[in-house]
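Structure ticket #2291
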Amino acid sequence: MILSKNLILSLEILTAHKLRTLLSVIGIVVGVGAVVVMVSAGRGAQKQILDRIQGMGTNLIVVSAGRTSIIAGRQRQMDIVRTLLVTDAQAIAKECPSVALAAPVVSNKLSVRWEDQDAVTNVVGMSAEGLAVRNIVVASGRAFDPDEDRMTKRVALLGPTAASNLFGADDPVGRQIRIGKVPFEVVGVTAAKGMDINGLDQDDLIIVPLETAMRRLLNVTYVQTVYAQARSSQVIGNAEQEIAELLRRRHRLADKPDDFTLQNQARLMETERETTSSMTLLIGSVAGISLAVGGVGILAVMLMSVRERTREIGLRRALGALRRDIRNQFLLESAILAGAGGVAGVVGGVGLSWVVSSLGYWLAMISWLAAAVAFSFSVLVGVFFGLYPALRAASLEPIQALRAE
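Resolution: structure written out below.
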């Protein structure tokens, strides 16, 4: 029989048993839909993480005082070291050819007050150059300048979360707040940056000039971090090596271990990309297991169909149908079942991903490649699990099949 007749006959048989057909494809629908949703969610999570890393600054190298380690998915400082100085940052900017800018930073959680509103937030002391290195944009008001930093002016930039906690919907620019017991004038509000890769709110902070923070608020002579910006992404590895050699020489470490940690943003992005890609692949593979479950459903339905249609098979063989015609008929039916489930799964997965992304639950980026692979795999699963029933139907002898009850 030609393919078109087989196709018409298969559709007539499947539509004649609507409930059974529906139940047989549910597993395929769930499997394909789960793969599409999980891969889309994984790609969305990867984009959010990479965007957060990029939001920390371009071509960025983070020099942390002491040794740091990743604990429970977050970077933790293992010890307190007071050897990283402002002069180290100045030397990095001056003596490292691959470094364009270097900005020292200090920070601490402090109590902040405006009128009757109190909050505890992260107060960051940063030079004016640090705003550029960290890619911090002022949304309203203005930023402080190097002169205000040098003169230890009491001016502050509020992050959107800190501004909301203290002032609600009111404009904080021009108002006076107290950090600890020291009054500061709010000169601007930064643009929102969202969560960082450690899950911390980058907008819940107050930025003040570095010298002001060190002398008037924290009373320290050392810094915790230096943000260094490489001249280009091509020389970021060279910049990291130059910084390490310079700090080891300035800190007179000789054969001692480093008293600082370097974190290359380019390497961090690559690590995060590999991690999230592996996780997406794992989750997608686990979701794909339900496709195998759906294949078992198709196997059961096709075996039932062979049993019910034994006399039909015998009659067709007696009228001249070849074994391959019977085999191809049943393989086509199983492929149609799997293909229909695959299409429904792709449509459902894409629709669900779009809905949850539109509602803001999480960012979902549709992967049409994953959808195509899931659909193709569903058809292969249908053919694979339909092969045994098809061979069993083709092996029936005409006389025995016609005598079957």
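Closing remark: The chain has two domains: 3-51+271-403, 82-258.
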